[in-house]
Specification:
- The complex is a heterodimer of chains A (295) and B (279).
- By secondary structure, chain A is mainly alpha-helical.
- A two-stranded antiparallel ribbon of chain A has the order 1-2.
- Chain A is built from twelve helices and two strands, in the order αββααααααααααα.
- Chain B is an all-alpha fold and 279 residues long.
- Chain B folds into two domains: 118 residues, no CATH class; 121 residues, Orthogonal Bundle (MetI-like fold).
- In chain B, α3 packs across α13.
- The two termini of chain B are 33 Å apart.
- In chain B, 49% of the residues are buried.
- The chains are: A mainly alpha (295), B mainly alpha (279).
- Chains A and B meet through α1, α3, α4, α5 and α7 of A and α1, α4, α5, α6 and α9 of B.
């Protein structure tokens, strides 16, 4: 980075002008609200929203000791693990198949990656069309087969539906990265293992999978972040967090507390807790990327 | 020598393709039947004859008992939002990466870190305070309100920075000898070299913009600014069986077609953009 001066342009004013648009937007729409969230998380408004007073960590202790929040937390962990696990394993399996020497692999690839472009909320709507108890093909089949299916009444079924719809959309993203990772593995390594007599399954678990683990780890973080935040659209369009609170994740709860119930203090405290979680996830990711760079 | 050719991969990939394609297939088929066929729950597997009427009903804003925002309006809003977000992100990221790489000035690294740190503040975690800022600035219910807060981009800035660092420094020296200033160098050397990266990024960011959900849901309640993804779920409401499902399905097809077309038609740019922004 220490380029000699002749390789740089002079001037102090121009670079600041070039940076200004980005810095203004970042300042106004990222830092101001973020500080605002931290500030509000220490305040409590009275019932009429007329005055507010400093309450220290009370909002935080309220949130963290609220059993329904803790349930949302546990639910979010379950939901995210299920989405990430499902999306990663299906994608890895398909990528391994697509990596074999087959005809028409480009066509298969195209047919598998396009769901990336479908918005989470729209993906949810497509699954709703199939599993609606009255108008959905599979929803009606299940009911006709004597299995009472109605995701609007049954919390477990609602959870299952949002997990599948969320994972469905994420498989193509993982597939692209797994396939790129698989294609980067030198053939010679695999051939050496084959000569040593390793069967395909054994080759996969002892050679391919370890070499793929950096990709898998990176994808795990991305998938967890996706399941935490981007699935808001899925939940909002299928279940609205219900029935009861059966599909209310943390992010959905910030939305209901802040936008629907206008409970600013606790909503801000929840936002701050979520920010800490994102920062932790991002740090894990960057530590890991740094390690990869130093290899 | 590694593997015998077998039919298994075809079978598994075929099943995979089916799982991905089937939800769309059902939706497209549903959008060609009339309301009573779907409402009765006789889900057809072959196209019906009501396609034109369903799509024109959706296009014009509902038929019969239900009126919604016309899909024509929502599509224009989504297109405008997606293009403006993508173009805005690329423009301000290009200039800021250029400033960070080709100049030395006070607080250069501080500026870089300030941009970089926004990676950790996704809009979802700071919904309420950001909304309050929008209210203070009187930017709710406007296209600017939909677009401007989303165009700050740490990933795009990082990507361009990485790319600019690979431009041989001798180019700068040569440009200086030829008497070209920094803006000239940007326009005549850096921009042309970046075209591939810009195209790849545009595809990714277009999809990002088109698929925005929470932000438009909060910022816009004026129907004339409704985007199609949000408008679609508003048509569904709580999923009542009496909904005009045939028109909703036609709207769903219109909501997913543009970004899917972009991915399929620009597949090469798309994969490049995806893999590079995540590095």
């Amino acid at each position: 980075m220490a380029a000699p001066a002749s390789f740089l342009f002079k001037g102090k004013f121009l670079p600041l002008v070039l940076l200004l648009p980005q810095l203004i937007i970042t300042g106004v729409f990222f830092f101001w609200p973020a500080f605002q969230a931290v500030y509000q998380s220490f305040l409590r408004e009275d019932a009429f929203g007329l005055s507010s007073q400093f309450v220290g960590f009370e909002n935080f202790t309220d949130v963290l000791s609220d059993p329904t929040w803790l349930q949302s937390f546990g639910r979010t962990i379950f939901f995210s693990t299920a989405v990430a696990g499902l999306a990663l394993s299906v994608a890895l399996f398909l990528a391994v198949q697509a990596d074999k020497q087959i005809r028409a692999s480009t066509t298969f690839k195209t047919m598998l990656i396009w769901p990336y472009a479908v918005a989470p909320a729209v993906a949810a709507v497509l699954w709703l069309f199939m599993f609606h108890p009255n108008i959905g093909l599979f929803g009606r089949m299940l009911n006709a087969a004597g299995i009472p299916w109605d995701y609007k009444l049954n919390g477990d079924q609602a959870m299952l539906l949002v997990i599948i719809a969320s994972a469905w959309k994420q498989v193509s993203y993982n597939f692209i990265f797994f396939l790129a990772g698989l294609q980067a593995i030198p053939r010679s390594v695999l051939e050496a293992a084959a000569i040593d007599g390793a069967k395909p399954m054994r080759r996969f678990w002892t050679v391919v999978f370890p070499l793929l683990s950096p990709t898998a780890f990176f994808l795990l973080v991305v998938n967890l972040t996706y399941a935490f935040f981007d699935t808001f659209g899925v939940i909002h369009s299928i279940t609205q967090g219900g029935p009861g609170k059966a599909t209310e994740t943390l992010i959905y709860r910030v939305y209901t507390d802040g936008v629907m119930n206008l409970n600013l203090g606790t909503s801000a405290a929840q936002s701050v807790i979520l920010m800490i979680m994102v920062i932790a996830l991002t740090m894990v990711q960057f530590r890991f990327i740094e390690r990869k760079v130093h290899y | 020598m590694l593997e015998k050719r077998s039919l298994w991969p075809y079978l598994w990939l075929g099943i995979g393709v089916l799982i991905f394609a089937f939800p769309i297939y059902i939706t497209v088929i549903g959008s060609t039947h009339d309301i009573s066929t779907i409402g009765r729950g006789d889900v057809p597997l072959l196209p019906g004859g009501h396609g034109v009427e369903n799509y024109s009903a959706a296009w014009a804003g509902g038929a019969g008992r239900f009126t919604t925002t016309p899909a024509a309006v929502m599509l224009v809003n989504s297109l405008l939002m997606a293009v403006l977000i993508a173009a805005g992100k690329i423009a301000i990221s290009l200039t800021s990466a250029y400033a960070v790489v080709f100049f030395r000035f006070p607080f250069r690294m501080l500026a870089f870190w300030l941009i970089f740190i926004t990676l950790m503040l996704p809009v979802e975690v700071r919904i309420i305070p950001t909304f309050q800022v929008m209210v203070n600035l009187d930017m709710t219910n406007s296209m600017a309100g939909l677009v401007v807060p989303l165009i700050a981009s740490a990933t795009a800035t990082l990507l361009f920075r990485q790319f600019f660092l690979t431009i041989p420094p001798e180019y700068v020296e040569a440009a200086k000898i030829d008497g070209a200033g920094p803006m000239r160098f940007f326009k005549d050397v850096v921009l042309p070299l970046s075209v591939t990266n810009i195209a790849a990024l545009f595809v990714i960011l277009f999809i990002y913009g088109w698929n925005q959900y929470l932000w438009p849901l909060l910022i816009v309640n004026d129907r004339s600014l409704e985007t199609i993804v949000v408008g679609l779920t508003k048509m569904i409401g709580t999923g009542d069986a009496q909904n005009e499902w045939n028109v909703i399905m036609a709207t769903a097809v219109m909501a997913l077609l543009p970004p899917v077309a972009v991915v399929v038609l620009m597949q090469r740019w798309f994969i490049k953009g995806l893999v590079e922004t995540e590095k």
